[in-house]
Write a sequence for this structure.
């Protein structure tokens, strides 16, 4: 069984530029999460999807962040415009029962 | 608010036993999970406790006391490959939401 796939693995951009991350969850997993993980910290939830519906986006900075999961499978997280403080690892996860399966993440560096 | 506390760092030698504690203050507590994350890697699931008591999975065990808002991860027969960060995470009732602690960095020395 393939795991959660994310791309790109690394991204370096200048501040004020847009950036997008892509995630393909494990087949059959209806729940998808986007997390942000700062260095030395635990993952923090940005948004959670049940199929194509965003059921918890309370921690998503909506002025610059957006996400979509149009067909209830893969998902895209976008930042526009990026700020220096957005530098972090962006993790995608999908769920089976009480276990979340994480992708390898995208390490974003904003200069 | 929601908060979880873990020690920031723990060191031990190969073959030893180490316990990583986690205390939490959350509303809507449903269960406690543990995840392992190697540097540059993805968090991977280790265990989940919804009821009080000890759950054992090979060299790793996890304990929960709901009345004390406390849990721990016990790692036995430590190996060098166990060097990683370990996160406790609270599952919130009636949601699929996890709130992660700040993590404990375990360093295993030969």
């Amino acid at each position: 069984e393939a795991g959660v796939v994310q791309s790109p693995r690394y991204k370096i951009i200048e501040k004020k530029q847009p950036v997008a991350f892509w995630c393909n969850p494990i087949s059959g997993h209806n729940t998808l999460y986007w997390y942000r993980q700062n260095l030395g910290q635990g993952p923090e939830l940005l948004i959670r999807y049940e199929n194509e519906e965003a059921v918890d986006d309370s921690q998503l900075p909506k002025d610059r962040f957006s996400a979509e999961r149009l067909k209830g499978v893969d998902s895209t997280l976008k930042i526009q415009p990026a700020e220096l403080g957005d530098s972090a690892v962006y993790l995608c996860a999908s769920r089976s029962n009480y276990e979340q399966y994480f992708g390898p993440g995208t390490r974003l560096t904003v200069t | 608010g929601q908060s979880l506390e873990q020690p920031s760092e723990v060191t031990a030698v190969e073959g030893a036993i180490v316990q990583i504690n986690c205390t939490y203050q959350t509303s809507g507590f449903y269960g406690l999970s543990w995840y392992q994350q190697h540097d540059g890697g993805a968090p991977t699931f280790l265990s989940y406790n919804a009821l009080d008591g000890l759950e054992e999975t090979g060299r790793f065990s996890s304990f929960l006391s709901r009345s004390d808002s406390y849990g721990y991860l016990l790692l036995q027969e430590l190996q060098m490959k166990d060097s990683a960060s370990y996160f406790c995470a609270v599952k919130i009732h009636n949601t699929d939401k996890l709130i992660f602690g700040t993590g404990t960095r375990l360093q295993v020395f030969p």
Notes: Chain A is about 0% helix and 50% strand. Chain A touches chain B through 21 residues (CB under 8 Å).
